[in-house]
Amino acid sequence: MNQLKLLIFLSILISQTIWSKVPESDIPIVIIKNDWSSQIMFTFVLKNIYEDLGYKVEIKELKTKDQWIFLSKGWAHIQVEIWQGTMAEMYNKTLKEGNLVEVGTHSAKTREEWWYPSYMEKKCPGLPDWKALKKCHQLFSTEATAPSGRYLGGPWEKPDEARIRALDLDFKVEKAKDGDQLWVELDKAYKDEKPIILFNWTPNWVEDRFKGKFVEFPKYNEKCESDPSWGINKKWAFDCGNPKDGWLKKAAHKTLKEQWPCAFKILKNMDLSSKMISNGAALIDADKMKPEEAAIKWMNLNKKKYLKWIPKECTRQIK
Ligand code: TMO
């Protein structure tokens, strides 16, 4: 009988010491969900990992342009995919305010840029060089934009109008209402080899299913965006393309590290490669899975990879 008591006592003690490490706080960790597939999926992956460890997690859906104030004020704590091409400016500005901290860079290199299907190279000789667009803009025109060409932009933050002006191109920007519209329109144009030029990025699932290329604008330079006198247009900034070897970062509100140290360590160790991102996006955009289901499928297929993100001292029982 005494032995049984001892055993019960010990098991309570053990479970309590394990419990006491994670979760470190009852306050929910708020992870930001944006509006493109890989970001959405890895937001759910991180949520699942945290919840398996006993944390409370809330998902906050935000447009990229609205997320900075949330990260700065601590209304949200984590963003898992910050892309250089579209977000560097606001990200750096927010870092300077001192409440947002960088939690590391993913292995994946990124590029976000104007993109066209390969069949356009016959119709518009000179592509991928951007100067070809000076002559071919009419190919891309629609009723709404004629005689200018139509560029289908993403619903993210890049000032394409500024680039069009600085490079003296004859295009009008139509912003897609969401990421999905880009792929619906690409798919439609692609089937009949109709002209289209639109925003795309890498890593993305698109490169596995469609042949195409990024437009080569004048090489990116930080000064290009801040100093009008830089580059081929002395009067206007933005006379260059986006970075070709862009970074992809993770960031968190400064309280994450103090309030949820294990969650912070896991985010720090979280490392996405190009393959992981393109495969993840394909589950949603090509295979049409719901993001929550795609996250579970991805975790089943990549257990070894994500378990490496979790330090030993942070594990309780992982399902
Ligand atoms: C931020 N994004 C990857 C959609 O360009």
Your description of this structure?
The protein has helices at about 1-20, 35-50, 65-75, 85-95, 120-125, 130-135, 160-165, 180-190, 205-210, 220-225, 255-260, 260-270, 275-285, 290-300, 305, and strands at about 30-35, 55-60, 80-85, 100-105, 110-115, 150-155, 170-175, 200, 210-215, 250-255. It is of the alpha/beta class and about 325 residues long. The longest helix is centred in the N-terminal third of the chain and has 20 residues, at about 1-20. The model has no long low-confidence stretch (mean pLDDT about 95). The structure holds trimethylamine oxide. Trimethylamine oxide binds near residues 112 and 156.
Helix- and strand-based class?
alpha/beta
Would you count the extended β strands for me?
A: 10
- From the alpha carbons, calculate the radius of gyration and give it in angstroms: 23 Å
Which blocks of ≥5 consecutive residues have pLDDT under 50? none
The share of residues in helices is 40-55%
Helix run count: 15
Approximately how much beta-strand content do the residues carry? 15-25%
Distance between the termini: 33 Å
* Average predicted confidence as pLDDT: 93
Topology order in helix (H) and strand (E) letters: HEHEHEHEEHHEHEHEHEHEHHHHH
Major sheet strand order: 3-10-4
